[in-house]
Fold this sequence. Notes:
By secondary structure, the chain is an alpha+beta fold. The chain is built from five helices and ten strands; from the N terminus they run E-E-E-E-H-H-E-H-E-H-E-E-E-H-E.
Amino acid sequence: MKKSLCGWLVAAGLAMIPLSALALKPGDAAPEFHGVDSNGKTQTPAQYRGKYVVLEWTNRDCPYTRKHYRSGNMERLQKEWTAKGVIWLTVISSAPGQEGYATPELENAYLRKMHAAPTAVILDPSGKIGRLYDAKTTPDMFVIDPQGKLIYEGAIDDRPTPDPASLQGATNYVSAALQEAMKGEPVQTPVTRPYGCSVKYGD
């Protein structure tokens, strides 16, 4: 199988990960970074202090990512939560020459084609931001609370398959975390094992 077809997919199980095994865990301050988005603007978690922030690692060529975008599921989530004041930052950490790498022009054209609605798409070809958060797969999701603390990290849902039919009846961990936190309740599932294609970092 060709590299461009994501021949080294990662389809990890969704068992809870022991917090002691995590370099970054819920309750920790979300690492600060400065990233340039597809429109040339600098994005940082700190500039959105006082708001919930979702970080979504993506790779448009990954079958698991395609499941969420071609079905409209990711776009629906982006529109639903940004309408409620949540900041949604999509991150592309694919290195030049690797699957999923995108120039600003390519990414903006893709966003228009898919009718996607993140707050911004951060281009991270060096992989610095991805490694800072230890992002492992596409998708890999993180939720940061208004105080800048991480409250969720892991899979987008409980269906580790590229089949769009699996979305029906799936538990969306990102939505659940946001709903619970906005009610002032503790997040019931703060960590899951992410599934998808490995993030295509450079050497």
